[in-house]
Amino acid sequence: MAKKGSRQIFGLMCAVCKYQGYISEKNKVNTPDKLVLKKYCKRCKKRTEHKETTKLK
User: Fold this and answer.
1) How many CB atoms lie within 10 A of CB 24?
2) Is residue 33 assigned to a domain?
3) Domain count, the chain
4) CA distance 14 to 50
5) Average of pLDDT values for 21-28?
6) Domain limits at 27?
7) Most buried of the four, 13, 27, 32, 53, by CB within 10 Å?
8) How far apart are CA 39 and CA 30, in angstroms?
9) Exposed, middle or buried, 51 (CB in 10 Å: 0-12/13-18/19+)?
10) pLDDT band for position 11 (cuts 50, 70, 90)
11) How far apart, in whole angstroms, are the C-alpha atoms of residue 11 and residue 34?
């Protein structure tokens, strides 16, 4: 049986090179706005801002 709840799966895409390197989930009731996190991008080889995207690869 599937989980019930308000969790949403999304991908994090690098703002510089547009590479999606992370997949995460969040509670869409508690955090309705899009996330922007500083994460390490292996294509850029440095820490850059990663923005939330709905499409998953």
Assistant:
1) 14
2) yes
3) 1
4) 4
5) 92
6) 7-53
7) 13
8) 22
9) middle
10) very high
11) 11
